[in-house]
Each structure stands twice: as structure tokens, then as C-alpha cells.
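FIELD: query
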Amino acid sequence: MAPEARLFAEPGRTLVIGSGSSIAADAFIHGPVVLGRGVSVNARASLDGGVGGIHIGDGTRIATGAALYAFNHGLAPDRPIREQPVTSRGIRVGADVWIGANAGVTDGVTVGDHAVVAMGAVVTRDVPEWAIVAGVPARVVGDRRQKR
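FIELD: result
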């Protein structure tokens, strides 16, 4: 783990880092977050587990600038954003997944094992196993099993 990485844990918002995992300089991680074995979190990636938490499976790669936020603010028009209720359902990312540079994953999403999230994609819905997703919002554009 790079000494410049910023990790935050507090009561009820723990961090678990699996063996062989790496966290690069300027990465930001705020629990609750569980990183499986051999996970890499690259520079400027940002993971905030909210209350629901983020769980990252073994061998997953999170590229530079990716953002995973496991919470959301309400949008009611009758009160300021700072006074809106916060919801948090959590994010699950499977094993052997690649989250591309500057991609975003929103609260409540599950990314299946072996999936790829393209650079700059914004994931707002669940991603099936083996799927390749791209775009804003992200949509399935391929299947890793067909990329030999």
C-alpha cells in the first residue's frame, strides 16, 4: 500500500484488505469496504462504502480515477441537497473484474464475475457475469468469452 493512499475506517465502517492486494498513491477508500485477495486499486480511484458497503471480489482491478459510491442523496425539490436523506444499498463487484479508468459505479449495483467496465462508463444497473459494458449510462456491448 502506498503511503500516500488515504484510507478511512471508523466505528461501523471497517476496511478489510485481502492478501496480495495493492492500493496506489492518491487512492481514497472510506469504509465499509472489503477488498478480496489480489485486488488492485489504482491512483485517484475513490471508493466510499456509505452504510451499505462495497465488496470487491478476488483478483479485481480498479483503474485510475474510477469512482464507486455506495450512497445517494434524496432529490426532493422542497429542501436543499444538504438536508436530503441519504440512502445506501451497497455495491458488489465480483471476482476477476476490470473497472476501467474514470468509470463510475453507483449505489445498489452488482457487477458480475469476469465483467469489464469500459473507461468512462457510468454503471447504474447490474452487470451480468462476463459482460463488457460501456457508455453513459453503461450498456452491454460484448462478452469476454467471445474475445479470444
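FIELD: remark
The mean pLDDT is 96.
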